[in-house]
Structure formats: C-alpha cells, structure tokens
Amino acid sequence: MKWVKPKPLSAICGVDGECPDVEELANGHCGFGIRELAAGKWVSTELDESDGDQKYNRAFMRLFSYISGTGNDQGVNIPMTSPVVTQTNLDENYQQNGGSMHFYIPTEFQENPPNPTNEDVEIEDWDDVIVYYRAFGYKGQQVSEDIWKREFGYLALAFVDAGLDVVARKSITGTYTQPGVREQRHEAMFVAKNHHNLYWNPADHSWKESRGYKECRKYPNPSNTLKPRTVESMCGNNAQCPAVEDMESSRCGYGTRNIKAGSWVSTEIFASDGGDRYFMAFERLGSYIMGNNENSQEIEMTIPIITKNFLDENFEEKRVTMHFYLPPEFHENPPTPNDDLVEIEQWVDTVVFYRAIGNYNENVNTDADVKAVWEKEFTILGEVLGKAGESFYPYIAVTATFTLPTQGQQRQEAIFLQWNDHEEE
Questions:
Q1: pLDDT exceeding 70 applies to what percent of the chain?
Q2: Residues 6 or more apart from 418 whose CB is under 8 A from it?
Q3: Contact indicator for 4, 136 with CB cutoff of 8 Å
Q4: Mean pLDDT in the chain?
Q5: How far apart are CA 67 and CA 103, in angstroms?
Q6: pLDDT at residue 404, as a whole number
Q7: What does DSSP say about strands 350-357 and 22-24: parallel, antiparallel, or unpaired?
Q8: What is the rounded distance in angstroms from the CA atom of residue 323 to the CA atom of residue 108?
Q9: Which of 131, 188, 413, 416 is close enough to 151 for a disulfide, judged by CB 3.0 to 4.6 Å?
Q10: Closest CA to 417 of 381, 374, 371, 365
Q11: Residue 309 in contact with residue 296, Cβ under 8 Å?
Q12: 3-state SS, residue 202
C-alpha cells in the first residue's frame, strides 16, 4: 500500500470541472489539512444497504441520472463537479451504519436547481463547514478499504496529536478524479468540532504568552520540554476550569493566580498500588464523575487535574492526593461518592504561584527523566519566589495538568501555595 502523490486541486478545480468554494486555513501542524467549505446546494441520495456491493455504484447512477437530465424535472444537463462526496455514519462501535452520496451543484444552478424526479434523490442546503483532511493519489480503478482505513487512521492520529476534535461518528471521502486515470486525488475527511476555539499553534504565541509570565534571563527556554499551551486556549474550550483571578507581578520566573472557592472531588494516591497508583486514583475519580455516586449523576470532566504531594521536613514524600474540580452547578449539593476512598472537599480562595511547561520532548524517556523535569521546575520556582520575597509553603508540591497525554499540545504546572493559604496536614 505505497502512498501515491495526489493530483493537486489547482489542476482539477476550474480545469476538469467546478468545485465548491473552499478556503485553506492556517495550519501549524503536520499530517492533515484544514479547509473551510462554503455553504451551497448539493444533490444527495442515501446508500441503500439492500443493494449490497452495488450500493455505491447505484447511488452514483441515481445522482448521475439527475445531472444528465433524465432525472430532473427540467430535463436539463448539469455539468459534473468535483468531488464526489460519500458520508458514512458510524455506530457506537465505529461500524458502518448507513451513509449517503453527494454531488455539488454548479454555480449556474445554485439559486434554483431543478427538482429531482426520483424520490430517492433530494437537494440539500449545506452550511459553511470546516473539515480536516488527508489527500492521496492512486493508480487503479477502485481504492481499497485497507487504503481508506490507513488514511483515516493517520488522519485521526494527526488531529488528536494537534489537540483537535471532530464529529467522530461520520467519516467522509472525497473523490476528485475518475477511476483509472493516471493522476488521481482522493481525500479522507472528518468534520471539525469547535475548530476556532480548539485550534492552537505554538508559533502564534510567544513563550511569555504561553507561560503566562516572563521568564528570568537566568533560565533559558528548556531543552527537555516544549512550549506550554495557553490557559485561555483550553479553559472553556477543551473543558471547564475553576474560576481564577490572574494577579499582576513585576517579577520574573513565575505567575500568580487566586483560585476561587469551590467543590472538588478527591482521593488518596496509595503507594501500595505501585506503578499503577496514579492511574488507579484517576480511575476512582473518573468513576465518580461517570455516575458512581449516590445520584448516579454524570458530571462533565474539568481541568486541571490537581495532584498534591505532601512532604516531610526532609522533603520526602509523605502523602499524595488527586483532585478533580466540580462544575459550579454541583458546588452547593454535590452527589455523595459511593466509593469510600473518594470524598468531596470544599476549597477556599487560594493564592498560588506557578511555573508552566509543555509536552516532554524526545529527551524525556523514563520515569526518572520525568521526575528530573519536575524537580528542576520546583527548584526554580522555590528560587524565584525566595528572591522575590514571596511567602510560600514548601512542604506541599502541587502539579496541575490541563491536558491529557493524547490531546496534543499540553500544559502542566508546578505550583506552591502562598503561605497564608496552605492547608497543614
């Protein structure tokens, strides 16, 4: 299944025939394109599963009959356009569950297209839509299912790595050229969800904007982590966050914010759970918000995921806890957990000092490497706070993770609590 270079759109649209109006959108990521498809009319038909292996050919012929004049009430010939679009609906197991085929109606017929005479064919008005796509060529009559699976798989990996979301239950194919011709173009597509809020390109933001504070000249940009994603690009877009007040500071090397009072669901991370202890704690909290509570109430996932490391006087780990923020509608009366290892906590307004990092790079491969990254960030945070004359409690080391490992650009924070706001345990 060797990848073949696709025929460029510039050699198809306006040359071989008309294409719908599109705008290629800025994209700082690799492995896929981003395109906005303008609103317009399309002629459409459902795939008939009773047609078996012929369902695509017969759907095509119904649409072709419409544009050739035998299948529309005016008997007019409508020029063929590109691409031929096929949408496949997927069930909860991502198996095919019906679908449809579509031809774009050319400009001269957009305002008042003739009516189909076949009841299985209809005219649809499509709104503007943003799609993520992968293009490939082919040398043959029919693209195999294995090739489509490959391209959809690569497309999914690419947009997930970019931290983007799609309408996952509808896969779309676009075929721009006739089967068997020397140069072909095919595209695997998904419709984007909430693109303008979720899309984030590190190149569009300075390190200061990404961190939320200016770095001290003493500490160059890190060699083992990437630029962190901005808080603004995630909170309210990827998920809900607790209410915070960012506090201005003329100092370098850290940011300051006041996390407003609210309810959090919490559990202890047990050393006896070994290497799975963080996952098991996450699973307990995840189970709670998925309905393992007295009301069987599902609760939306929020960010960040907070971990508190309580240290003894020798800065050795004494106790570790994990926490999920509960959305405001659950603050007054959150459902009681069914699991005795999970509890609800009421947090007061808390001023914190933080340093932000992004994804680990290729230099961070082991648990020891990860530990070294965090030790360095907490050491620097302690140094800059001491130099700035800030009072903080060094025996609670807090980490905040704003993105899951599979969600592309990440943001993680090393946090110390302001002295007056710490909770001694």
A1: 96
A2: 350, 351, 352, 353, 390, 391, 392, 393
A3: yes
A4: 91
A5: 9
A6: 62
A7: unpaired
A8: 59
A9: 188
A10: 381
A11: no
A12: helix
Whether this prediction's pTM lies above 0.85 is answered by no
Query: CB count, 10 Å around CB of 412?
Result: 24
CA–CA dist 169, 183 (Å, integer): 30
Give, for 111, the enclosing helix (H) or strand (E): none
Positive or negative: CA dihedral 240, 33, 84, 146:
negative
Helix (H), strand (E) counts: the chain: 7, 19
* Tokens (6 digits) for 169: 């239950």
**Residue type at 93 in one-letter notation:** N
Separation between Cα atoms, residue 291 and residue 281, nearest integer Å: 16
Is residue 76 within 8 Å of residue 48, measured between CB atoms? Answer: no
Q: d(Cα 259, Cα 261) in Å, to the nearest integer?
A: 7
Higher-scoring residue by pLDDT: 283, 359: 283
- What token pair was written down for 389? 């004359």
Which band of pLDDT confidence, cut at 50, 70 and 90, is reported for residue 408?
low
| Cis upstream peptide for 83 (omega within 30°) | yes
Percentages helix, strand, coil for the chain (3-state, rounded to 5) are 25, 35, 45
Instruction: Output DSSP code: residue 178.
Output: -
List pLDDT tens digits, range 32-80: 999 999 999 999 999 999 999 899 999 999 999 999 999 999 999 999 9
Give SS3 for 195.
Answer: helix
**CA separation for the pair 321, 306 (Å, rounded):** 8
DSSP 18: B
Please check the confidence at residue 407 and state whether its pLDDT lies above 80.
no
- Where do we find the tokens 């679908």? 99
Neighbours of 105 (CB within 10 A): 24
Residue 240 burial (CB count, 10 A): 16
Q: Which residues contact residue 309 at a Cβ distance below 8 angstroms, ignoring those fewer than 6 apart?
A: 317, 319, 320, 396, 397, 398, 399
**Both structure tokens of 313:** 């006087």
Q: How far apart are CA 402 and CA 384, in angstroms?
A: 23
